[in-house]
Amino acid sequence: MIMDGGNAGAGERDEAVLLGRRAGLLTRRSFLVGSAAGVGALGLAGCASDGMSLAEAAKVYGPVPEEKFPIPAVDVSKVDPKYYRRTVRYDTKEAPGTIIVDPGNYYVYRIEDDGTATRYGANVGRGGFRWSGDAYVGRKGEWATWTPPKEMIKRQPEAAKYAGGMPGGLDNPLGARTLYLYQNGAYTLYTIYASLDAESIGNGITSGCVGLLTQDMMHLYERTPVKTKVIVLPA
Q1: Which of 5, 103, 157, 174 has the most Cβ atoms closer than 10 angstroms to its Cβ?
Q2: Higher pLDDT, 34 or 93
């Protein structure tokens, strides 16, 4: 991603501009599939506690009208129930609060202090764009400005109109909340961000960044301070 002062872009991702969703402009999903479609360790304990019913999920993923940009409800019928937020058993020596990304299974875990983790469904990088390793949250952003990197503009010239930055909002690819991942004091170009695209969860569609449903991302964001350790497992 390209950083411009206090603002950041969604970097080496092709989940760029959700411009006027389904309204004749470029959509978030068309950018997500991007050039790939032409415009498609630690022991993970997947033993879940009681999962959500569809009715419960509709409440958890309901609208958030009090936000700066009111957030619409998720169409939970478009999300596989296994990707609804859950508390699961998770055996690890990592400290509570650590975030573990499991791109191979499309999950993000936040380690709790009782042998469990909060598990979120995610979208992840598509083949050829995935990365792994240890990082940490270097900074956080709410309704952040997105700036497409020059590499993306070269691949997708339509994004050039945002070379100066796209203000925060529902159409902005970074969404309502963003965690920026750093290694050794340097920005990695990768983020964990908020997605309004229910159908993206459980899919590899980005160029390495990790997306959670907006309501899940807000839940994680509130509990994640700067300097939190993040482990991205190999896919």
Answers
A1: 174
A2: 93
Q: Are strands 116-125 and 204-206 parallel, antiparallel or unpaired?
A: parallel
Q: Tokens standing for 111?
A: 């380690």
Structure letter (DSSP) for residue 119: E
Compute the distance between CA of residue 137 and CA of residue 22 in angstroms, rounded to an integer: 33
**Helical residues (DSSP H) of the chain, grouped into ranges:** 28-37, 54-60, 150-155, 214-222
Where does residue 24 fall: left (phi above 0), alpha (psi -120 to 50 degrees), or beta otherwise? Answer: left
Q: Assign 23 a pLDDT band (cuts: 50, 70, 90).
A: very low
Largest CA distance in the chain: 49
Alpha-carbon distance of 83 to 96, in angstroms, equals 22
Q: Is 35 helix (H, G, I), strand (E, B) or coil?
A: helix
How far is the C-alpha of 126 from the C-alpha of 194, rounded, in Å?
A: 17
Block residue for tokens 């190999």: 234
Tokens found for residue 119? 């598990």
195 strand-pairing partners: 213
Rounded to an integer, what distance in angstroms lies between the CA atom of residue 175 and that of residue 193? 7
C-alpha to C-alpha distance for 136 and 229, rounded to whole angstroms = 4
Which of 182, 109, 172, 123 lies closest to 146 in space, CA to CA?
172
